[in-house]
Predict the structure.
Amino acid sequence: MKIGIIGPALSGKTTLFQLLTGAISASGNKGGIPQGAARIPDLRADELTSVFNPKKTAYATVEFADFPSFGTGGEVSGEMAGRLKALDALAVVVRAHRDPSIPWPKEPITPDKAFASFQQEMILTDLVQVETLLARNKDKKRTAAEEELLQACQLLLEEMKPISAGTWSDEALPFLRNYAFLSSRPVLVAINVDEEQLVEHTYNGRDELVTQCQEAGYPMVEFCGTLEMEISQMELPEQQEFMAEYGVTQSGIARLAAAAYQLLDLISFFTVGEDEVRAWTINAMTPAKKAAGKIHSDIERGFIRAEVIHYDEFMSLGGSLKTARDQGKLRLEGKEYIVHDGDIINFRFNV
Ligand SMILES: Nc1nc2c(ncn2[C@@H]2O[C@H](COP(=O)(O)OP(=O)(O)OP(=O)(O)O)[C@@H](O)[C@H]2O)c(=O)[nH]1
Ligand SMILES: [Mg+2]
Protein backbone atom coordinates (compact mmCIF):
# COMPACT_ATOMS: atom_id res chain seq x y z
CA MET A 1 0.00 0.00 0.00
CA LYS A 2 1.47 3.31 -1.05
CA ILE A 3 0.46 6.92 -0.51
CA GLY A 4 1.72 9.70 -2.74
CA ILE A 5 2.48 13.03 -1.08
CA ILE A 6 1.49 15.71 -3.55
CA GLY A 7 0.46 19.35 -3.50
CA PRO A 8 1.41 22.88 -4.52
CA ALA A 9 5.06 23.99 -4.67
CA LEU A 10 6.81 24.65 -1.34
CA SER A 11 3.79 23.56 0.70
CA GLY A 12 5.88 21.23 2.88
CA LYS A 13 5.65 17.90 1.05
CA THR A 14 9.27 16.90 1.48
CA THR A 15 9.25 18.06 5.10
CA LEU A 16 6.22 15.86 5.76
CA PHE A 17 7.78 12.91 3.93
CA GLN A 18 10.97 13.18 5.96
CA LEU A 19 9.05 13.45 9.22
CA LEU A 20 6.91 10.43 8.41
CA THR A 21 9.67 8.18 7.19
CA GLY A 22 12.55 9.47 9.28
CA ALA A 23 14.53 10.02 6.09
CA ILE A 24 17.34 12.51 6.71
CA SER A 25 17.80 13.58 3.14
CA ALA A 26 15.35 12.62 0.46
CA SER A 27 17.58 14.05 -2.23
CA GLY A 28 19.63 10.83 -2.19
CA ASN A 29 17.19 9.31 -4.63
CA LYS A 30 18.66 10.77 -7.81
CA GLY A 31 16.04 11.91 -10.25
CA GLY A 32 13.48 9.46 -8.90
CA ILE A 33 10.67 9.85 -6.43
CA PRO A 34 11.88 9.26 -2.85
CA GLN A 35 9.99 6.45 -1.15
CA GLY A 36 10.00 5.24 2.40
CA ALA A 37 8.04 3.43 5.08
CA ALA A 38 6.32 5.33 7.88
CA ARG A 39 5.67 3.63 11.19
CA ILE A 40 2.02 3.66 12.25
CA PRO A 41 1.96 4.57 15.94
CA ASP A 42 -0.07 2.12 18.00
CA LEU A 43 -0.60 2.44 21.74
CA ARG A 44 -1.71 -1.20 21.85
CA ALA A 45 1.62 -2.36 20.46
CA ASP A 46 3.30 -0.19 23.11
CA GLU A 47 1.20 -1.76 25.89
CA LEU A 48 1.77 -5.30 24.60
CA THR A 49 5.48 -4.55 24.61
CA SER A 50 5.25 -3.62 28.32
CA VAL A 51 3.41 -6.89 28.98
CA PHE A 52 5.68 -9.29 27.07
CA ASN A 53 8.95 -7.39 27.20
CA PRO A 54 9.93 -8.91 23.84
CA LYS A 55 13.31 -8.71 22.11
CA LYS A 56 11.65 -6.84 19.29
CA THR A 57 8.50 -4.83 18.63
CA ALA A 58 7.38 -4.42 15.03
CA TYR A 59 4.87 -1.74 14.19
CA ALA A 60 2.69 -1.56 11.12
CA THR A 61 4.05 0.60 8.33
CA VAL A 62 2.73 2.38 5.26
CA GLU A 63 4.82 3.40 2.25
CA PHE A 64 4.94 7.03 1.25
CA ALA A 65 6.36 8.61 -1.90
CA ASP A 66 7.45 12.25 -2.06
CA PHE A 67 6.35 13.77 -5.35
CA PRO A 68 7.69 17.02 -6.74
CA SER A 69 5.07 19.68 -7.43
CA PHE A 70 4.43 18.65 -10.99
CA GLY A 71 2.91 20.95 -13.56
CA THR A 72 -0.69 19.86 -13.32
CA GLY A 73 -3.31 20.82 -15.84
CA GLY A 74 -1.46 19.07 -18.66
CA GLU A 75 -0.49 15.63 -19.81
CA VAL A 76 1.34 13.58 -17.20
CA SER A 77 4.67 12.26 -18.48
CA GLY A 78 5.04 8.54 -19.04
CA GLU A 79 7.35 8.12 -16.06
CA MET A 80 5.08 10.11 -13.76
CA ALA A 81 2.05 8.14 -14.96
CA GLY A 82 3.78 4.92 -13.97
CA ARG A 83 4.47 6.31 -10.50
CA LEU A 84 0.92 7.50 -10.06
CA LYS A 85 -0.57 4.15 -11.06
CA ALA A 86 1.23 2.50 -8.17
CA LEU A 87 -0.50 4.75 -5.62
CA ASP A 88 -3.40 3.65 -3.45
CA ALA A 89 -4.13 7.08 -2.04
CA LEU A 90 -2.94 10.68 -1.99
CA ALA A 91 -1.90 12.99 0.82
CA VAL A 92 -2.34 16.53 -0.43
CA VAL A 93 -0.24 19.04 1.51
CA VAL A 94 -1.39 22.66 1.58
CA ARG A 95 0.22 25.55 3.38
CA ALA A 96 -1.46 27.69 6.00
CA HIS A 97 1.68 28.90 7.81
CA ARG A 98 2.68 32.48 7.15
CA ASP A 99 6.47 32.32 7.50
CA PRO A 100 7.60 35.30 5.37
CA SER A 101 10.95 33.64 4.67
CA ILE A 102 9.26 30.92 2.59
CA PRO A 103 8.19 32.30 -0.78
CA TRP A 104 4.70 31.68 -2.15
CA PRO A 105 4.45 30.04 -5.58
CA LYS A 106 2.21 32.88 -6.75
CA GLU A 107 0.66 35.33 -4.27
CA PRO A 108 -0.19 34.45 -0.63
CA ILE A 109 -3.30 32.28 -0.63
CA THR A 110 -5.46 30.72 2.11
CA PRO A 111 -5.39 26.90 2.38
CA ASP A 112 -9.02 26.46 1.32
CA LYS A 113 -8.29 28.30 -1.93
CA ALA A 114 -4.99 26.46 -2.34
CA PHE A 115 -6.74 23.12 -1.93
CA ALA A 116 -9.65 24.03 -4.21
CA SER A 117 -7.31 25.19 -6.94
CA PHE A 118 -5.10 22.11 -6.54
CA GLN A 119 -8.13 19.86 -6.81
CA GLN A 120 -9.19 21.71 -9.95
CA GLU A 121 -5.75 21.11 -11.40
CA MET A 122 -5.99 17.40 -10.56
CA ILE A 123 -9.34 17.23 -12.33
CA LEU A 124 -8.01 19.04 -15.40
CA THR A 125 -4.97 16.76 -15.48
CA ASP A 126 -7.28 13.74 -15.42
CA LEU A 127 -9.47 15.23 -18.11
CA VAL A 128 -6.45 15.60 -20.39
CA GLN A 129 -5.54 11.96 -19.67
CA VAL A 130 -9.04 10.70 -20.38
CA GLU A 131 -9.28 12.65 -23.60
CA THR A 132 -5.88 11.41 -24.71
CA LEU A 133 -6.91 7.82 -23.98
CA LEU A 134 -10.21 8.16 -25.78
CA ALA A 135 -8.54 9.75 -28.81
CA ARG A 136 -6.09 6.84 -28.98
CA ASN A 137 -8.91 4.31 -29.03
CA LYS A 138 -8.37 3.35 -32.66
CA ASP A 139 -4.94 1.84 -32.29
CA LYS A 140 -5.60 0.33 -28.86
CA LYS A 141 -8.39 -2.23 -28.70
CA ARG A 142 -10.47 -1.44 -25.66
CA THR A 143 -13.58 -3.30 -24.62
CA ALA A 144 -16.91 -1.52 -24.89
CA ALA A 145 -17.23 -1.58 -21.10
CA GLU A 146 -13.87 0.13 -20.69
CA GLU A 147 -14.75 2.69 -23.29
CA GLU A 148 -17.97 3.48 -21.44
CA LEU A 149 -16.08 3.75 -18.19
CA LEU A 150 -13.72 6.33 -19.67
CA GLN A 151 -16.64 8.28 -21.09
CA ALA A 152 -18.33 8.29 -17.69
CA CYS A 153 -15.09 9.64 -16.20
CA GLN A 154 -14.95 12.31 -18.86
CA LEU A 155 -18.50 13.45 -18.05
CA LEU A 156 -17.72 13.78 -14.35
CA LEU A 157 -14.46 15.61 -14.95
CA GLU A 158 -16.12 18.02 -17.35
CA GLU A 159 -18.45 18.92 -14.49
CA MET A 160 -15.30 19.57 -12.43
CA LYS A 161 -16.04 16.60 -10.17
CA PRO A 162 -13.35 14.13 -9.07
CA ILE A 163 -13.61 10.59 -10.46
CA SER A 164 -13.97 9.36 -6.87
CA ALA A 165 -17.33 11.17 -6.73
CA GLY A 166 -18.75 8.71 -9.25
CA THR A 167 -20.63 5.52 -8.44
CA TRP A 168 -18.60 2.64 -9.82
CA SER A 169 -19.37 -1.05 -10.07
CA ASP A 170 -17.06 -3.62 -8.50
CA GLU A 171 -15.90 -4.63 -11.99
CA ALA A 172 -14.97 -1.02 -12.83
CA LEU A 173 -12.73 -0.46 -9.82
CA PRO A 174 -9.68 -2.46 -10.93
CA PHE A 175 -9.80 -0.73 -14.33
CA LEU A 176 -9.99 2.67 -12.69
CA ARG A 177 -7.11 1.85 -10.42
CA ASN A 178 -4.99 0.85 -13.36
CA TYR A 179 -5.16 4.32 -14.88
CA ALA A 180 -2.90 7.06 -13.61
CA PHE A 181 -5.85 9.24 -12.65
CA LEU A 182 -5.28 11.47 -9.66
CA SER A 183 -8.87 12.20 -8.73
CA SER A 184 -9.90 8.53 -8.49
CA ARG A 185 -7.78 7.91 -5.39
CA PRO A 186 -8.81 8.41 -1.76
CA VAL A 187 -7.45 11.72 -0.46
CA LEU A 188 -6.18 12.92 2.88
CA VAL A 189 -5.64 16.65 3.29
CA ALA A 190 -2.63 17.69 5.36
CA ILE A 191 -2.53 21.34 6.42
CA ASN A 192 0.86 22.74 7.28
CA VAL A 193 0.10 25.31 10.00
CA ASP A 194 2.36 27.54 12.09
CA GLU A 195 2.69 27.39 15.89
CA GLU A 196 0.21 30.18 16.49
CA GLN A 197 -2.41 28.64 14.21
CA LEU A 198 -1.93 25.29 15.93
CA VAL A 199 -2.54 26.74 19.39
CA GLU A 200 -5.43 28.93 18.29
CA HIS A 201 -7.02 26.11 16.28
CA THR A 202 -7.83 28.51 13.52
CA TYR A 203 -6.54 30.38 10.49
CA ASN A 204 -8.01 32.21 7.52
CA GLY A 205 -10.05 29.85 5.37
CA ARG A 206 -10.25 27.03 7.94
CA ASP A 207 -14.06 26.87 8.08
CA GLU A 208 -14.26 26.78 4.29
CA LEU A 209 -11.63 24.05 4.15
CA VAL A 210 -13.43 21.94 6.77
CA THR A 211 -16.63 22.20 4.70
CA GLN A 212 -14.81 21.29 1.48
CA CYS A 213 -13.24 18.23 3.09
CA GLN A 214 -16.48 17.11 4.73
CA GLU A 215 -18.39 17.40 1.47
CA ALA A 216 -15.76 15.41 -0.41
CA GLY A 217 -15.34 12.88 2.42
CA TYR A 218 -11.63 13.67 2.82
CA PRO A 219 -10.08 13.36 6.27
CA MET A 220 -8.15 16.50 7.25
CA VAL A 221 -5.11 16.61 9.52
CA GLU A 222 -3.27 19.71 10.71
CA PHE A 223 0.44 19.57 11.45
CA CYS A 224 3.12 22.16 12.08
CA GLY A 225 6.18 21.28 10.02
CA THR A 226 8.68 23.28 12.07
CA LEU A 227 7.31 22.06 15.41
CA GLU A 228 7.30 18.44 14.25
CA MET A 229 10.92 18.80 13.19
CA GLU A 230 11.78 19.91 16.73
CA ILE A 231 9.74 17.09 18.27
CA SER A 232 11.47 14.51 16.08
CA GLN A 233 14.83 15.54 17.57
CA MET A 234 13.68 14.92 21.17
CA GLU A 235 13.62 11.93 23.48
CA LEU A 236 10.20 10.58 24.42
CA PRO A 237 9.58 12.18 27.85
CA GLU A 238 10.79 15.53 26.56
CA GLN A 239 8.50 15.18 23.52
CA GLN A 240 5.45 14.79 25.74
CA GLU A 241 6.31 17.81 27.88
CA PHE A 242 6.94 19.87 24.79
CA MET A 243 3.66 18.86 23.14
CA ALA A 244 1.74 19.58 26.34
CA GLU A 245 2.89 23.20 26.06
CA TYR A 246 1.01 23.32 22.77
CA GLY A 247 -2.01 21.55 24.23
CA VAL A 248 -1.57 18.35 22.22
CA THR A 249 -0.98 14.77 23.35
CA GLN A 250 -0.08 13.24 20.01
CA SER A 251 2.23 14.64 17.36
CA GLY A 252 0.70 15.76 14.09
CA ILE A 253 2.81 13.16 12.32
CA ALA A 254 1.39 10.37 14.50
CA ARG A 255 -2.14 11.58 13.76
CA LEU A 256 -1.36 11.78 10.08
CA ALA A 257 0.09 8.28 9.94
CA ALA A 258 -2.96 6.89 11.74
CA ALA A 259 -5.30 8.74 9.38
CA ALA A 260 -3.39 7.34 6.39
CA TYR A 261 -3.82 3.79 7.72
CA GLN A 262 -7.54 4.36 8.06
CA LEU A 263 -7.77 5.98 4.65
CA LEU A 264 -6.40 2.78 3.13
CA ASP A 265 -8.98 0.74 5.05
CA LEU A 266 -6.22 -1.14 6.85
CA ILE A 267 -6.41 -2.77 10.27
CA SER A 268 -3.90 -4.55 12.51
CA PHE A 269 -3.87 -7.84 14.31
CA PHE A 270 -1.12 -8.81 16.73
CA THR A 271 1.10 -11.76 17.37
CA VAL A 272 2.71 -11.73 20.79
CA GLY A 273 5.46 -13.52 22.67
CA GLU A 274 8.79 -13.12 24.39
CA ASP A 275 10.61 -12.96 21.07
CA GLU A 276 8.44 -10.45 19.35
CA VAL A 277 5.32 -8.34 19.56
CA ARG A 278 4.21 -7.56 16.04
CA ALA A 279 1.37 -5.65 14.41
CA TRP A 280 0.36 -7.22 11.09
CA THR A 281 -1.42 -5.20 8.46
CA ILE A 282 -4.47 -6.57 6.67
CA ASN A 283 -7.42 -5.12 4.83
CA ALA A 284 -10.58 -4.78 6.85
CA MET A 285 -12.84 -7.86 6.37
CA THR A 286 -9.98 -10.32 5.83
CA PRO A 287 -10.78 -13.93 6.88
CA ALA A 288 -8.45 -15.70 9.32
CA LYS A 289 -6.88 -18.10 6.83
CA LYS A 290 -5.89 -15.30 4.49
CA ALA A 291 -4.63 -13.20 7.41
CA ALA A 292 -2.39 -16.14 8.35
CA GLY A 293 -0.83 -15.86 4.90
CA LYS A 294 0.51 -12.43 5.87
CA ILE A 295 2.82 -14.17 8.31
CA HIS A 296 3.79 -17.08 6.09
CA SER A 297 2.27 -18.92 3.16
CA ASP A 298 2.85 -22.22 5.05
CA ILE A 299 0.63 -21.02 7.89
CA GLU A 300 -2.12 -20.18 5.41
CA ARG A 301 -1.75 -23.49 3.59
CA GLY A 302 -1.66 -25.61 6.74
CA PHE A 303 -4.21 -23.50 8.64
CA ILE A 304 -6.06 -25.45 11.33
CA ARG A 305 -7.48 -22.91 13.78
CA ALA A 306 -6.86 -19.38 14.99
CA GLU A 307 -6.61 -18.89 18.73
CA VAL A 308 -8.01 -15.39 19.24
CA ILE A 309 -8.53 -12.87 21.99
CA HIS A 310 -9.17 -9.20 21.42
CA TYR A 311 -6.61 -6.75 22.83
CA ASP A 312 -9.24 -5.05 25.04
CA GLU A 313 -10.34 -8.30 26.60
CA PHE A 314 -6.74 -9.44 27.01
CA MET A 315 -5.87 -6.27 28.89
CA SER A 316 -9.02 -6.48 31.02
CA LEU A 317 -7.80 -9.93 32.13
CA GLY A 318 -4.63 -8.32 33.43
CA GLY A 319 -2.60 -8.91 30.28
CA SER A 320 -2.05 -12.60 30.96
CA LEU A 321 -2.40 -15.33 28.35
CA LYS A 322 -2.50 -17.90 31.13
CA THR A 323 -5.49 -16.23 32.80
CA ALA A 324 -7.16 -15.93 29.41
CA ARG A 325 -6.60 -19.61 28.70
CA ASP A 326 -7.66 -20.73 32.21
CA GLN A 327 -10.88 -18.73 31.91
CA GLY A 328 -11.60 -20.11 28.45
CA LYS A 329 -11.30 -16.68 26.87
CA LEU A 330 -9.01 -17.79 24.03
CA ARG A 331 -11.50 -18.48 21.28
CA LEU A 332 -10.83 -21.07 18.60
CA GLU A 333 -11.88 -19.62 15.28
CA GLY A 334 -12.04 -21.25 11.84
CA LYS A 335 -10.69 -20.12 8.49
CA GLU A 336 -13.73 -17.96 7.64
CA TYR A 337 -13.54 -15.92 10.85
CA ILE A 338 -13.27 -12.20 9.97
CA VAL A 339 -10.28 -10.79 11.81
CA HIS A 340 -10.96 -7.65 13.85
CA ASP A 341 -8.70 -4.68 14.40
CA GLY A 342 -6.85 -5.41 17.64
CA ASP A 343 -7.24 -9.19 17.66
CA ILE A 344 -4.33 -11.04 19.25
CA ILE A 345 -3.92 -14.26 17.30
CA ASN A 346 -1.99 -17.49 17.57
CA PHE A 347 -2.37 -19.57 14.42
CA ARG A 348 -2.37 -23.34 14.69
CA PHE A 349 -1.19 -24.95 11.51
CA ASN A 350 0.21 -28.14 10.13
CA VAL A 351 2.42 -28.52 7.06
N1 LIG B 1 7.99 28.24 8.76
C1 LIG B 1 7.76 27.01 8.32
N2 LIG B 1 8.46 26.56 7.29
C2 LIG B 1 8.21 25.32 6.85
C3 LIG B 1 7.25 24.48 7.45
N3 LIG B 1 7.22 23.31 6.79
C4 LIG B 1 8.15 23.42 5.81
N4 LIG B 1 8.75 24.62 5.85
C5 LIG B 1 9.82 25.13 4.97
O1 LIG B 1 9.25 25.42 3.72
C6 LIG B 1 10.18 25.14 2.67
C7 LIG B 1 9.55 24.18 1.68
O2 LIG B 1 9.35 22.94 2.32
P1 LIG B 1 9.42 21.56 1.54
O3 LIG B 1 9.09 20.52 2.50
O4 LIG B 1 10.69 21.46 0.79
O5 LIG B 1 8.22 21.82 0.53
P2 LIG B 1 7.86 20.98 -0.77
O6 LIG B 1 6.38 21.01 -0.88
O7 LIG B 1 8.50 19.64 -0.73
O8 LIG B 1 8.51 21.86 -1.91
P3 LIG B 1 8.72 21.44 -3.45
O9 LIG B 1 8.99 19.98 -3.50
O10 LIG B 1 9.87 22.27 -3.89
O11 LIG B 1 7.43 21.82 -4.13
C8 LIG B 1 11.40 24.57 3.34
O12 LIG B 1 12.34 25.62 3.49
C9 LIG B 1 10.89 24.12 4.69
O13 LIG B 1 11.91 24.15 5.67
C10 LIG B 1 6.51 25.01 8.56
O14 LIG B 1 5.66 24.35 9.16
N5 LIG B 1 6.80 26.28 8.94
MG1 LIG C 1 9.67 18.61 -2.19
Q: What stands out?
A: The CA atoms of residues 32 and 67 lie 9 Å apart. The longest helix spans residues 111-135. The chain is about 40% helix and 20% strand. The pocket of magnesium ion (ligand 2) is lined by residues 13-14, 68 (CB under 6 Å).
